[in-house]
Here is the input.
Amino acid sequence: MVTHYADTRTTRSGSGVVARILLTLLGAAGLIVGGLLDWWDGIAGTDLTVKSLYQTTFTPTDRFVSSVGAVAILLGLLAVLGLVGSSGWLTRLAGALGVVMFILFAIQAYRGTSSIDTVQDRLSAITDRLGAGAWVVLGGGLVALVGGFLGRPRVLTGATRVRDEDI
Here is the structure.
């Protein structure tokens, strides 16, 4: 009679873990620094109201907590916190939300220039007014998203046969 059992091991690639840490930290730095840079017409992310993500009001705010920069900084801190877990889901979530944040802002920037007639002129006006902070947040979000997929543990399962005489 032959008995089967499964041998399961969890492994990690050393280079994958290092890449995950580096990309997560780089992405988090992009999210945090991007939140501090200019986003629209010379207004820093920490001075721009969070309403600019869902309304065409690009007005400054005096409250740090209600700024797009504060949201970007929070996402950067969440990405770093995602290094604590082994799966990287929190880092991936923070990176994806950073990308979504840029997309929402870009949509409102496009809507905010609706008085300009041609699409080419609208895009030109947007690129003239859009600051580096929004672009850095987009890059940081993408890098953190990729970093969250690296260094995850892999489960290896191998079947082994054992005969009764071996027991």
Q: What stands out?
A: Residues 52 and 58 are 5 Å apart (CA to CA). The radius of gyration is 23 Å. The helical segments are 14-36, 68-81, 89-112, 119-129, 132-149. Residues 13-166 form one domain.
